[in-house]
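Dear Dr. H.,

I hope your travels went smoothly. While you were away I took the liberty of generating a structure for the chain from your last submission, since the lab meeting agenda had it listed for discussion. I wanted you to have the full record in hand beforehand rather than looking at slides cold. The sequence, exactly as received, is reproduced here:
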Amino acid sequence: MSMNSPLSRRNLLKGAAALSLSTQASALARMNGYGFDESHRTRSLVLIYLRGGADFLNMIVPRTDPSYELCRPTIGIKADEVVELSRNWGLHPALAALKPIYEEELLVPYIGVGSPHPTRSHFDAQDFMNFGAPGDRSVVNGWMNRYLTLSQKTEEGTQNEFRGIGMQRLLPIAVRGSYPVLAVPDDFASRRATSVLDRFGKFYGADGEVKEDSEGEMGSRPQPADGLDVLQSGKNTIESLRRFREIVSAKGLQNFGYPDTSIGEGMQRIAQVILSGEGLEVAAIDFNGWDHHARQGGARGSQANKLKELGDALAAFRKQLGERIGETMVMVMTEFGRTVHENGSGGTDHGHGSGMFLMGGGLRGGKVHGSFDGLRTNSLYEGRDLPVTTDYRDVIAAVLRGHMNFKAPKDFFPDYKAKKLKLFK
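The corresponding predicted structure, in token form, is as follows:
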């Protein structure tokens, strides 16, 4: 909608409806929670999703596997470049900022994590993983949204609009669904965003009715019930976004070393909301650009540049949170891994098994988790990819239980019973 064009009733309703997509509750959002410990209210879970299929084999490096260098003669990380974590494992040098966190036992690199579904389609793999239902296209609520639905309080008027946040204009898949989650545009700190909120907000009265505009198109006459619901949702969203701006616009904040990029800005905003005491439980942000079919690079190059952003953002986040990191968990995941062998274009193609990073309090940190049987051809999935040795749903279930004090019901993951992992002390 042009900021110079007059606001008609139709345009305003469209805008309010769009805003309400992230705030409109349904009957599912009023379900009784179960398997739920109220003490989780002080805890936060943050998901960073690396869209494009990130190459974890160059992120968590098997530094003593002789096949690694043979498989990756130009993009492999050399022995003297690897940031050593243990005798067998190291980090890409662009992730060096994570080593102190690893030494604090607040970081768990997890190798061989992934989805058992064989698809190598980005879109299918991302949907299946974020909905927590590999191969099942009937599931339309993301796994984080299901958590919010099942763990909420049931009393009227007790819901917190900051329980769930998507730190981008289009909600990340994992938080989409029936429970209301606030979507925050990337450019929300700009003056233009304030102007947009002001132009929408002036049409709402205390009772949620629409006020009349200068052309008399928006009278305060009674609206249909469904229209009032949409308008009230829009009003609530505007109020929430105004409060969000107050939180992230506070003066005197340090940068803490965040990169001047979308992932750096997004993670800093998430940290500010956590520290504000508004009760943030779930936040999600997508980090695009990991589909490195060509010119991937090794210690330097396109992947290294992305990794530097990721590592510096995580390190700054940990620094900003301080002691609050003990009640916070960050999960870094991707839809699938890459081929073990580099291709003829100096990159890697769509693979299978991948990895994850977990960062936060209570972890059995200070070591690399997961099962790894080497890079020999007979150890690989279809002779070309890392196998999935840990189902990603097992990790999610362990984090929900060990960190959020939420025991996922048996149907939380359709047709799958999560295995127990020893991730927490």
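Two observations you may find useful: The first helix runs from residue 9 to 20. The chain has a mean pLDDT of 84.

With kind regards,
E. W.
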